[in-house]
Input
Amino acid sequence: MWKISVVFLLIIIFFFMLASPFENKPSSIRPLELASLQRGAKYFMNYCSGCHSLQYMRYNRLGVDLKIDDKFNSATQPRLKENLIFTQAKTSDTIKSNLHEKESLLWFGKLPPDLSLSIRARSADWVYNYLLSFYLDDTRPFGVNNSFIKNTAMPDPLATIRMDTNTYHNVKNNTNDRLSLKISNHAIYSHSNKNRSKVPTLEEVVNDLVNFLAYIAEPTKNNRQSLGKKVCGFLVLLTFFVSILKKQIWRSIEKINTFHKP
Amino acid sequence: MSSADKNLTPKNIINWVSERFPINEYIHQHLTHYYLPKNLNFWYFFGSLSLFTFFLQILTGIWLTLFYTPTPEGAFTSIEMMMRDIPYGWLFRYLHSTGASAFFLLIYAHIFRSLLYGSYKKPRELVWLLGVCLYIILLLEACLGYLLPWGQTSYWASQIGTSLLDSIPKIGPTLTLWIRGNNTVSGETLHRFFAFHVIAIPLFLVFLIRLHLTALHKVGCNNPDGISVLAKPNLNNKTLHKLPFHPYYSVKELHALLIFLLIFSIIVFFIPEMHGYFLEANNFIPANPLLTPSHIEPIWYLAPFYGVLCVIPNKPLGILIMLGVICIPFVLPWLDRSPVRSMRYRGYYSRCALAIFILSFGLLSYMSTTILTPNKIFLLQILLLNYFLFFLFMPFYTKYEKNKPLPRSICGK
Output
């Protein structure tokens, strides 16, 4: 009987364990990962959000999860507003680009897809390779082409960083005329990286962007895994107790049968 | 309540209820005095585990309907929003999507158990027939539910699924229009699929499960030796052949349930997509009626039937063969002429046939989820032939094979 009570006790503990994470807990993203995600958010807002939306993600969720904004401290609110929101959006809004539909059809021939689920629909490798595979091509309207997805409609958003890392080997003198390559890289990095000695390489930027998009594709992934560890640990424990209980109950039958074996 | 038992102790409440409701008889009949053979092994737990998964699907399903919007504009967004904005929304969604796949895995294990120990043979034919009905209704339920996320795979798989009806002569086009409510899969289709998935089919499933269990409790449970066991414990001999369900099997079932839940939780919490088998990558793209994906990859539990349609060049013939694949298990109890139930005492023909059958069906399911090349199509046709030959040759190999002698009881050798 006492074993049954132990089992019931454990069931109660389980529900308490389930109940506790219902409070508002900060996200459980590891510090190293967090730095990459914060950089990724910066790169996304700088290079991608002009055209691409993240229509299933809210600014404030992003702020709390990436520790840019604190839900309970109103003093941190301007941090999100000033650094990541470049539109008229409120912090409770989803991340939407201001690109006009008509204009985008005129410029690119199609609407830039929403990137909320890009990693789950394609894969992290796909996005990584795609972003790294741009090369100069005069036959295309934006002067660049992609070796991974031939004749892609997207111009190279990271052209300025690519220039910096000399990925474009055959940069001609007239490249500055092109719209996408107009801004000199010094102009950009002198401001956004003024505290840093090292300019990030293209691979690092793409890596952070992919990390960020992977987080956007499933913001609850860390919560899922941390809850999963607790649930599985509890189930292992409970299975152990129930297997003892099972042995106890079946022992009586085995006794009868061995005693009275015909 | 009479004045004598006015104090509300639990015992009094139970007495009050049992005087008015056959609760004690029910517990007696189905738990404490429901006798099962004592040699049941782990294959026998998949039935109750599927029942558990069924109720899990019902509960998580009810929760999902609270936040789901069955319109083409709202369906995809409402699911994404429930996974992000609603506390534990992701958990319920993953429980439901993983539960669907787990349900089919458990059902397949349950069916395999029947084939292994001859549980479909006399006197359990009706249990088997009801079980096959349940399996078919479950497939239908899965098909209907598959449209609801309104992703690309959902949309185009349903488009193909409903277009099957189109090739029925004469009534086909009318029937398709009725089912779809439009010329293509659209908001109307989503509405009716939602209604069927959420209430109509589950009610029917509950009814069939009740019948399945009633029929089972009437004829009693088979056992791995496939021999008849004495109905009541033989007290003279003091050797127990049968044990009451509670506590002996209830504790074993609980143990099995916990092990299942552990595996299930690992999938739900750590690999809910199961590398594209439980949640496909293409289904994370909202449905676009103007953009047909280059490769439509059906979810694994619908894959074998989709595969049959792909490898048969003629569409009406393909549909007929697919119906054959689904319906041929109905006649299994009358195809098997072996005097022995369990594979333990059957000859090599039956054992080999079952092994080839399982391998064929497994490979057919797996290969149907991949991109089909002419070589693969040829292989799939052979596998499909194997599937039918297992049933068609069954009257012969079961009749003429040499079986092992049966033991006299399940306890002694």
Remarks:
- Chain A touches chain B at residues 22, 55-58, 61, 116-117, 120-123, 217-220, 223-225, 227-229, 231-232, 235-236, 238-239, 242-243, 245-246, 249-250, 253, 256-257, 259-262 (CB under 8 Å).
